Hints:
- This protein is an alpha+beta fold.
- It has a single domain, classed as Cytidine Deaminase, domain 2 (3-Layer(aba) Sandwich).
- It has 4 helices and 5 strands, in the order αββαβαββα.
- A hairpin with a 5-residue loop joins β4 (101-111) and β5.
- The radius of gyration is 14 Å and the shape is globular.
- Tetrahydrodeoxyuridine binds next to α2.
Amino acid sequence: MAKTSTDQALFEAAEAIRAKAYAPYSRFHVGAAILADDGKIYAGCNIENAAYPQGNCAEASAISAMVAGGGKRITRIYVTGPGAAPVTPCGGCRQRIREFADLDVEIISHGVDGTPLVTTLAQLLPHSFGPEFLPK
Length: 136
Ligand code: THU
């Protein structure tokens, strides 16, 4: 199916920032692009570290860009990576997305040589814990 213009813009933003990924250890370059509630696109790439656990995923970087830029909520998120298999967010990033997205928000996971996989956050993170569970 042809991409919508929004998905094309998200794909292009994710691919542009994926080219800047700092991933000398895995060599697995990932880009993420968020459409936020302010109508803007915020993008991020993975940034690895010689102390491996200190690396950042692309989704975490994109969320940082969104918060720094004034966006409050994720309305759609696109993830791109190498190969044909859809690059789906890791478990930790599913929870990071959960903080800023409704459960019906769509996550498009795209291995650039393959077909994108469209899922909702609820599908990727069932029975999840979120901010509304905590007392105000
Ligand atoms: N990675 C991401 O940035 N996002 C994903 O959705 C999957 C994995 C990164 C983490 C690490 O830098 C590299 O890809 C290999 O796992």
